[in-house]
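Q: My labmate handed me this sequence with no annotations at all. I'd like to see what the chain might look like in three dimensions before we decide whether it's worth expressing. Could you predict it?
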Amino acid sequence: MDTVLIGLLGGLITGISPCILPVLPVIFLTAGAQPAAPGKAPEVIPAKPSRPYWIIAGLVISFSLVTLLGSLLLGLLSIPQSTIRWAGVAVLAIIGVGMLFPGFEQLLEKPFQRLPRRKVGDGGSGFGMGLALGTVFVPCAGPVLAAIIVAGATGTIGVETVLLTVSFALGVAIPLLVFALAGRSVAGRIRGFRKRERTIRIVGGVALIALAIGLAFNLPQTLQRLLPDYTAGLQRDLAESDAGKNALQLGGLVTDENRDLDRCANNAPELAECGTAPALRGIEAWLNTPNGEAIDLPALRGQVVLIDFWAYSCINCQRSVPHVVAWDQAYRDAGLTVIGVHSPEYAFEKERANVEAGMQDFGIDYPVALDNSLSTWTNYRNRYWPAHYLIDAAGTVRHISFGEGNYAVTEKLIRELLQDANPGATLPAETRTSDATPELGSTTPETFLGSSKDRNYAGAGEYRAGTGEFTFPETQPDDTFALDGTWDIETQFATPGGKSEGTIRLNYRGQEVRTVVAGTGTVTVDVAGGGTRTLEVSGTPRSIRLVAEDDPASGTLDLMVTPGVEVYSFTFG
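A: Here is what I predict for the chain of 573 residues:
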């Protein structure tokens, strides 16, 4: 029941958000403009009462299928994920042209002439329009939609996921249906509408073509940037409610295979019994195994296993990996098997060559699984980089540690499990790797510049995808960033959008401040009270240090970024 309720509420909130504004004029106009049958004058054909329902029904069905199954099916067929969206844009444009030119519309209807004419006229084209709208109508990625997308992308689709998706789509459809019915009502009440139906059809066709062009150039994102997201607070309250937390863990995330992981408290000082370790699923490739052979956890019975979820550009992982490497080197001969599961935060972290370069930098020679689809990440219900899952010789998860730190406890429990697996064995001395974990609250939190994970933004207005003009605020709080100039905000990075450089102002705390950048160009760093330096950027994403050891450990720095450079994130230590 929680699942359906959260889905409906999430959909309703999305349905009244700024995200739906681009499709409202199209739905309003086309719901009242019924296509004429071939050979008949448009003026004498009134809009069918069922047309708004057909349009919204098509939108709900296609949106649900594309959202839930699109990523899964396209992945299996090795087709780019944008294919469905571009197909929807093309269909909208074709329908719009058909509304402008009846002859072209008749040509489109020829393949369906064998169908009963009454069925086509009763709403076939309205349903087709709804199908096309559903493929391109991707609303704000709130918590409900995010849970659904993860499930579809990872192929872990259960009954509750389907219920969440359908209820979300129905929730979105309710406000849209109100606009569609309003369009039909206006068409029926205004006497001059039927006399000028041809004109209204032309306006509707132009609106469809304009929507298609706008979607092709991502103009709706620019529109959304200009409007305040008045539903953000509602979305946040929904996700943080007890019912929301329970419902949004589904999407195939909670299964019989991983349900018992709840028995392990994060960073607990003692071992627990947390169920059989979930399988390693959806691994694209294995590194550091003989001939790239896959590792099957049941085949490791008798060994103590440590699974480390990491990503090579994650600063938290960069501080954690040396401990994992030290444990592997110290305890491998004593019966410990370390498996690194590389689950990417960014698209560039899916590239095998980039991961291999990161492994070489860290001295990793234990097996690493490329979990590019986040299938194993999802099967373990993981949410953190890094995360450590300790499995005993019988294959049972005994300890979970999220984030940095807690290394002494984790090593103590590793040694305890090794002794249990081989009583009487002599273990090597404990490792003495220096713990570089920053004290909680002592540094600025990790900061992302992409629209999907933006955090700590202090400028005016909403931080959204698209190209826009930015200016620094008069006052800027600690631990925040702001932009100046023209910037193009993409899903995972920001890049100057004009011909001149853009500037990022960062109020920071941390002696080691780094940024992940890519592309070609330069980054000039000006640290208040410190030095100024220009850094060359070329090639794939990499982490570069911004604050030198002799610079202030807190303060303000300006980052002048030339066009062609992509800035992904800031990390602090």
